[in-house]
Specification:
Elements (H helix, E strand, L loop, with lengths): L9 H10 L28 E6 L1 H13 L4 E4 L6 H7 L14 E6 L14 H24 L4 E6 L29 H17 L4 E4 L1 H8 L21 H16 L1
Parallel strand pairs: 1-2, 1-3, 3-4, 4-5
Helix pairs in contact: 2-7, 3-4, 4-5
Length: 257
C-alpha cells in the first residue's frame, strides 16, 4: 500500500511511479491482503489442483481446463509475487486449500520479481520468501499425510523471454527499437530458477518439478532465441494460444504421471 493510504498492489504502484517519473514511498505488505480471491468450489472431480503464481500460470491453467481437464485446477488470484504468497499460505483466514481429501499444489514465482524498474527483487530476498513459502507447503503436506491424505507439491520454473538485441529500453516506450517493457532478461531468469531449485532441494517436503522453462526454450529455438512468433507474444512474457496449449499439454503429463 502507498503511504497516502491508497491500497494498491506493489506491482501497480511501482508501475505507476516508473511511468510518471515520480518517487513513491511504499511499505512492504506484511499480512496476507484481503484481495486474494477464495477458491471456487470444486465439482465432483476427485483430482484437485491449487495453482498460484502470475499470469503465465493463469494462461496455462486456462488452456489446461479448456483442452484437457483430467484434474480440476483452481487458480488463486492475487498471488502474483512471492512476497505476498509466502504470507498467505499459513493464513487461517484464507481458504486457499481444500478442507479435506487429496490435492496437488502448483507454484510459479519469479516472473514479476525479475522485472526491471517495477517489481525488481533481490535474489536473496526472493530466496527468503520462497523458503518461507516452501516450508509452509511442506508443513501442509506433512499435516495432511498424518490425516491419511496426499498433497503433491509441484514447482513450475519461470518461463523464458526473447533476447532483444538492443537490450534494455531505459525510457517508457513502445515500438521498433524498444525491448520488453518492463525489461526482463534470461540471465535473470536463470538466477531466479536456480534459487527456486535450491530452495526446493533444501525443503523438507516432497516436490515434483514441472520444467516449463526448458519446454518453452526448446520449442522457441534454444537458449538466446530472439523471437518466437509461433508460441510467444512479441516483446512479452506471455504466450499465444499455441504456446499456452503446449504448456498445458506438458502439465497434463506432469499431473497424470
Amino acid at each position: 500500500f502507498a503511504e497516502d493510504g491508497i491500497t494498491a498492489s506493489l506491482a501497480g504502484a511501482a508501475q505507476f511511479c516508473w511511468e510518471h517519473k515520480t518517487k513513491c514511498t511504499c511499505s512492504e505488505i506484511r499480512t496476507c491482503p484481503e484481495s486474494i480471491y477464495p477458491l471456487e468450489e470444486y465439482g465432483h472431480s476427485s483430482k484437485k489442483v491449487v495453482a498460484f503464481g502470475a499470469s503465465v500460470m493463469e494462461q496455462m491453467a486456462k488452456s489446461y481446463s479448456e483442452n484437457f481437464g483430467s484434474h480440476q485446477i483452481n487458480f488463486v488470484h492475487g498471488m502474483t509475487s512471492g512476497s505476498v504468497a509466502h504470507l498467505c499460505v499459513e493464513d487461517p483466514n484464507q481458504q486457499i486449500f481444500p478442507a479435506s481429501g487429496d490435492f496437488d499444489v502448483m507454484v510459479q514465482f519469479g516472473c514479476h520479481e525479475i522485472a526491471h524498474h517495477v517489481e525488481r527483487e533481490d535474489p536473496e530476498k526472493f530466496r527468503k520468501y520462497m523458503q518461507h513459502l516452501f516450508n509452509g507447503l511442506a508443513n501442509l503436506q506433512q499435516e495432511r499425510h498424518e490425516r491419511g491424505e496426499t498433497v503433491r507439491l509441484i514447482l513450475t520454473t519461470v518461463t523464458p523471454v526473447e533476447t532483444h538485441p538492443d537490450g534494455e529500453c531505459t525510457e517508457h516506450c513502445e515500438g521498433e527499437g524498444c525491448g520488453m517493457v518492463p525489461y526482463r532478461s534470461n540471465d535473470d531468469i536463470d538466477v531466479y530458477n536456480n534459487v527456486l531449485m535450491d530452495v526446493m532441494n533444501e525443503s523438507s517436503g516432497s516436490w515434483k518439478l514441472f520444467d516449463a522453462h526448458d519446454l518453452m526454450q526448446n520449442l522457441c529455438g534454444g537458449k538466446g532465441y530472439v523471437s518466437c512468433p509461433e508460441y510467444q507474444l512479441p516483446l512479452n512474457v506471455h504466450f499465444n494460444e499455441k504456446g499456452a496449449y503446449e504448456l498445458a499439454k506438458k502439465l497434463e503429463e506432469t499431473l497424470t504421471n
